[in-house]
Specification:
4-stranded antiparallel sheet; globular; mainly beta
């Protein structure tokens, strides 16, 4: 198990922004932006959601986003309602999406969903669990599996949506 210092934050550490979730989208045309529709206006395409895929790690195959950023669940959360806010969400940013999340390699689309956060944003869920990043990891890194912070364990999960031991 990694040392807690590798995953915990302190007031002395700078606040690093979490990697942005891979979210695609198509810019609306000028008429749609202005809330008007011209005679030749095309329907606005639905935003492409965050991609969730399975990738290799030191823990075996686990869930990553489309940018190869490791994804965690918070075992304190026993429903799809997110409980990680404020300092918790600074250290463990939620995996957000615009549009329906997209199943990448090895992911079951039926297990993907969303839950609404207090600010109205859509957080990706997998097998009913809200998903998070660790703010201080690079793509491909898995530094904070099985770490206790903010009243629960942070765990990576497999393709079935189960937390790894």
């Amino acid at each position: 198990m990694p040392a807690l210092i590798a995953c915990g934050g302190s007031d002395d550490e700078p606040d690093n922004a979490a990697p942005a979730a891979k979210v695609g989208g198509v810019a609306a045309d000028a008429d749609a932006k202005n809330g008007t529709e011209g005679a030749n206006a095309k329907p606005k395409p639905e935003a492409m959601g965050t991609e969730i895929a399975i990738g290799e790690s030191q823990f075996g195959e686990i869930v990553f986003d489309g940018s190869n950023q490791a994804i965690y669940l918070f075992d304190k959360e026993t429903s799809s309602k997110a409980e990680c806010y404020a300092d918790c969400a600074d250290a463990w940013p939620p995996v957000l999406t615009e549009g329906k999340p997209v199943a990448g390699d090895g992911v079951n689309q039926e297990l993907l969903g969303t839950t609404e956060r207090d600010d109205g944003s859509a957080q990706v869920t997998y097998a009913g669990q809200p998903l998070y990043y660790y703010a201080h990891e690079e793509p491909g890194q898995v530094l904070c599996h099985n770490v206790s912070e903010f009243g629960g364990l942070w765990l990576v999960l497999n393709a079935a949506g189960n937390a790894l031991p």
